[in-house]
Queue: 3 jobs
Job 1
Amino acid sequence: MRFLIIFLTCFWSLHSYAFQVQPMVAELKPSGSNSQQRIRVMNNSNDPLTIELTAFDLEINKAGDEELKLNEEDFLIIPMTTIVQPGKTQSVLVRYIGDPAISVSKSYRIAVDQVPVDINEIKQSGVGMSVSFRTLFNVVPEQATAKLLVKEKQLEQAGVWKILLENEGDKFIRLSQAKWLFKNQEEQLLLEGEELSKALSGKLLLPHSEREVTIEVPAKFSPQNSQLEVLF
C-alpha cells in the first residue's frame, strides 16, 4: 500500500481539494490580544473530515530550502484534532504562548493535516491520499524592522538572475510582497504583485539571514549594467 501526501503552503492555491484553510498567512504579536489567530477549515466534500494541527519552527538556509522542527511549546492550539462535517467550517484557535520578550521576529509553519480514516478505501485502491496545508505564522515584536541588502547579483542563465540577499533587520521580509525595480541607462522595469510572484523563486527572507533567489528578468537588463532596488 502506498500513501501520498500533498503539501500546500501559503504560496500555493489549490481549490480542487476537499478542504480549504484560511488564513494561510498570519502575523501575531508576542503578547496581548493580537497574539492569537483563528484558523478556519472548510470541508467542501461530502464526507466527514478529520484534521490535526501541529506547529513547527521555520528556518530557511542560504540555498532557500525550508527546515522544519517540531515545536510543542510556543503555541496553544484548540482543538488540535477535530472532525469537520460535510459542508461545515471549523474554527481553530492558535495562540502564541512562547517568549513574550523576543526582540527578533520568529516564523513558524502551522500544519493542518488531513488524517485518513477510511482504511477500507485505501486497501481497495492501493493508494491513500492525504492533504497537508502549511500555513505561515510570523510572531513580530513591537518596533521590529527589516533591513534588506542586495549583496550579489549574477546571470544564472539567459533571462534569469541569481541574487544573494541579506536581511540585517529584526523582522522577516515577504519578498513577493515588495516592489523590485530594475534600472539600466535606457529604461527601468518594475515587478510587483502576481507578475513578481511568478518570476521570483524565493518568497521569504528571515531576520539576520542570507538566501539566494532567482528571478526572471528581460535579457536587456544585465546584472553587470543594471541596478536593482527592492522596495517594501
Note: The chain has two domains: 2-139, 148-231.
Job 2
Amino acid sequence: MTSLFREFRLAVDNFNIWSYLSASDVKNKFRRSKLGVIWPVIHQLAFSLGAGMIWAAVFHLKPEDFIPFLTIGFAIWGFISGSMMEGCSSFVVAHGYLKQLPLPQSIFIFRTVFTQVIYLAIGMATALGVLIYFGKLHPLGLLYAIPGILLLLGYSYGAIGTLAYLGLRYRDLQHGLAGIFSLLFVVTPVIYPAEVLIKKGLSFAIYMNPFSSLIEIVRVPVLTGGFANETHYIIAGAFALVLAVLRFFFGSRWGRYVPFWS
C-alpha cells in the first residue's frame, strides 16, 4: 500500500512531465496530417457504420440499436488492447530519458496511460455523438458509467505498468500479443451482444474473459441508464488489482535493470 501511495505521489509531483510527453506523442503521431486527430474519428465511424449495418442483419438486430452498441464497444476495446500493446514499449521508447536522466520510472507508465486516455476520450466522444444521433443516449447512464470507467483506468495502469517491464525484458512479447488480441477481438463481445454466446450455452466465454467485463461495465450503463451485472464489476476489479500487484512485483524485481535493458 505504501508503494501505491508513493507511486501516485510521484505521478502528481511529475504531472507536468508525463502529461507533456503524452500530448507530444499524440501530436507527433499526426504531425503534418491535414485532419490530425479527426482520423481516429473517421476510422471509428467507418467501421461502426459499415460493419454495424452488415452485422445487424446477421444478428437480426435493428441498426439504430446495434450501431451505437458497436461504436461504444469499439472505443473501449481500442483502449483495452492499446493499453496492453503500447504498454510493452513504454520503457523501450523512453530509452533516451532512462539512460541519461534520474527520472522515476512511473513517469513513463503514466505517460502511456494518459496517451491511451486521450484516445479513449476521442473514441467515447465519437460514440456519444452516435448515441445522440440515434436518440439512444441515457443522460444518467454517464453517471452510472463512472465506476466502470474508474475500473477501466485502474486496469490500464496495471496493464501498462506490468507490460512495461515484461515488454522491455522480452522484446518479442508485443508481437505475440498482437496475435493474441486478434483472437480475443473475436471471442470478446465487442462486435456482438453477450446474449449471443449466452443463448448458445457459451456464457463461460464471457465470465472467464475479464476483457468482456471491462467492456460491459462501461457500455451497459451508457446504453441502458443502469448498472451492469455486479459480477462484471467484481471480475474487472479483481483483474485490475492483480495487474497492479504484478506491476509492483516486476518493478521491485527488475526496476534497477531498466536503464541497462532499455
Note: The chain has a mean pLDDT of 88.
Job 3
Amino acid sequence: EVALPAIIVTDVKRAMALIAASFYDFLQNKLKTLALTGTKGKTTSAYFAKAILDKMNGGKTALLSTAQTTLDGKNYFKSELTTPESLDLLEMMAKALTNGMTHLVMEVSSQAYKTERVYGLTFDVGVFLNISPDHIGPVEHPTLEDYFYCKRQLLKNSRYFVANSEMNHFAIIKEEL
C-alpha cells in the first residue's frame, strides 16, 4: 500500500469548478459579469452588450461567445464551446483580469448548467432572451422541461436578472423571480 493524499468527490464536474475557482483565488469575483442565455440571439446580444460596456469603460470588456473570445478587448480567437469548461473558463477570467479587463460579457448555454461548467459562479447580471424547442433530442436535452430548467438556472445564479416578458413560458420565470 502507498499512502497518498487524495480528494474523493461524488461529483467530479462540481469539484473541478470549485477547485478551479479556488486555484485562481476567486478572481472571477473581481470582474463585473453579464451572462446571456436563450435559444436564439445570445451572440448578437453579447456583441451589442460588449460595445455598450466598452463605451462606458474605455474598452475593458472581455467577451466569451459562441463565435469568438477576447480576453484583452483587442485580439479575438475562435471559441471552442459557447461556454468553456470550468477550468478553462476560470483561467480565461484570470487572463482577462491580468489584461486589465473590468467587465466580462459571456454566453451561458443550457449545457453549461447541465454539465456544471459554471457551477459555483454568480453573475452580476443574467439575461434570459427566449426559449424554443431547438435543442431537444437524445444528444442535448430529452425534453423541453429539462432544457428550460437548465436555462432557468441563470436566474438563480445572478444578482440581477432581466427576462424578455414576451418570451414563451415567461409566466414560469416570473413566478421564480
Note: The chain has a mean pLDDT of 95.
